[in-house]
TrEMBL record:
This is Prokaryotic-type class I peptide chain release factors domain-containing protein. Transmembrane segments: none annotated. It is found in: Mitochondrion. The keyword Flavoprotein does not apply. Its main location: mitochondrion. One of its GO terms (cellular component) is mitochondrion. Pfam families: RF-1. Residues 127-143 have a biased composition (Basic residues). It comes from Aspergillus ruber (strain CBS 135680). Belongs to the prokaryotic/mitochondrial release factor family. GO terms for biological process: mitochondrial translation. InterPro entries: Mito_Transl_Release_Factor, Pep_chain_release_fac_I, Pep_chain_release_fac_I_sf. Residues 113-182 are annotated as: Disordered.
Amino acid sequence: MLRGLFHNGPFYTTLALTRIPHRWSVSQQRVFSLSAPAHDKPLPPRLKISDADLTVYYLKGTGPGGQKINKTNSAVQLIHKPTGIVVKSQATRSRSQNEKIAKQLLADRVEDLEKGDQSRTAIKAERAKKKKASKLKKTRKKYRDLESKEGEHDEGDEHSEEDHTLQSEDTVTQPSPETKGR
C-alpha cells in the first residue's frame, strides 16, 4: 500500500493507493486531530506564584460528601498576600490535589487582575466566543440553504397541482343523452 500526506486546508488529507486484486483504487481520507489547530497561537504560560506570597489554611470540608469530608482537613484555602485574593478548593478528598487546584485557580485570578485581556482565561474565552459564533453562522447558513431549496421545490409542486386540477376539470364528461333516459 502506498500512502502520501498532503496539506489540504485546515486539515490534512491522506491519499491512499491500495492494491485490490486485478485493479488499483484511490481513496481520499480525512485525518482529524483532537489537539489544538496549528494555526492558533499557543496560550501564554501560567503565572508562577511563589510560596512566600501565599498563606495556606487547611479546612474541614462542607456540603455533600458525608461524615468523612466533615471530619478531615482536606479543603485548602489560599490567600495571596500582595493582592488579598482568597481561593478555596475542596474538589477532591486529597489535600495535595486540592492545593494544586487552588494554586491554579489563584494563578488564573492574579493573572486576570494583572494582564486583563491578555490573560489565559480571557484568550480562552475569546476563542470560545469566536468558535461559537462560527458554529452559529454555519448553522444559520445550512438552514437558510435548506429553506431556499424547499421554496424552489414548493413552487414547482404548486404549478404541477394547478395544471393537474385544470386537466381534471377539462376531462369531466357530460352524460350522454342515451344514458339520461335510463
